Amino acid sequence: MHIPNRTPQPLSRSHLALASALALAAGALPLFAAPPPPMEIAVRMVRAEGEVALEGEQETIYFRLGSAEKQTVRERVCLKPWHRKRIEVLDPESRRGHLTVCDGRTRTTYLPKRNVLFQTPLPVRSRTEAVKVLRVRLLKANFKATSKGIQQIAGRKAYAIELRSKRFEGGVHRFWVDAATYARLKEERLGADGRSLGSSQFVRVTFRKPLDDSLFDFTRPADAQCRGAETNELPPLSLKELDRKAPFSVAAPPMLPGGFVFESARLQEHGDRKVVWLRYIDGLNFLSLFETPVDGEKEPQGPGGARFFRRDALMWNSDGINFVLVGSVPQLQREAIRAELTK
């Protein structure tokens, strides 16, 4: 039998384009394409927030305040543009069924075992987009990005990047960003001592899966209590407006960690308790300060009376006010803010 001796022919441009498109649809990198610069990956990751459709399961690790004790939470996550979200806790059993639903206008959190729900109006789209623009500008000014190669996360090719602040020592943010959609597939934060402050990772994910709009609707159970329902002023208040509306004198940090700027101020209601929320950003991190009257509580508490299950929270009371400071900045920075507010 004669077998013709044929010289392999190079792929045509149309064949190369088709192969690249198929690879992209499968979550792979386009053929022969070099990864973008790491800062460009970080910028695209921020811009992709609220713009990607996916369904999957993720595992998140939280650390209890002041200890190495951790809790792992497994959740089903559904996302759909624009900023529609459904997150349902699958494990542990103690939190199973906890539900967060965003329909683009309102965020609803429902705790089925207590039959309690919380609802928060979301900022209008123009406000969210304006904050994204500010975050991108601050991200470029305040952080140095380093590439850590390409890895597989939940069967997807992901760009691994590391971000370090230019403004203060300590603290590392690591992200694994989907190469096709720039959605976050995994993230981890390390403290100045190298210990993990928490992580979140998709263990299963599907993109471009049609998601029914009904997933992002929430029907309130007839007997559910709205205890602790939150109300936000929209648009967010200025500090002067907040100080005028709050039932107590608002304390704003006179000094902030390097690179942080004021982003918004809100006055919330949790039942009969008024809570002030000041938020600051540096492009990547969010620093939140909550203030509420002590009201007979012996220990400082978070919004709605919650005790934070986070290593990056600092709680104290002073002059009849409970303070909760939450943010992924080094402990010394948080302690400095507390010292300024208790002078």
Describe it for me?
The chain is α+β, with helices and mostly antiparallel strands. The protein folds into two domains: 38-215, outer membrane lipoprotein receptor (LolB), chain A (Clam); 239-341, MucB/RseB, C-terminal domain (Phosphorylase Kinase, domain 1, 2-Layer Sandwich), CATH 3.30.200. It has helices spanning 13-25, 38-48, 125-142, 239-245, 331-341, and strands at 54-63, 70-80, 84-91, 99-103, 106-111, 116-121, 143-153, 156-165, 172-178, 184-190, 196-207, 261-270, 273-281, 286-293, 313-318, 321-327. The chain has an eleven-stranded antiparallel beta sheet with strand order 6-5-4-3-2-1-11-10-9-8-7. A five-stranded antiparallel beta sheet has the order 12-13-14-16-15. A hairpin with a 3-residue loop joins strand 2 (70-80) and strand 3. Residues 1-8, 16-29 and 300-309 have low confidence and may be disordered.
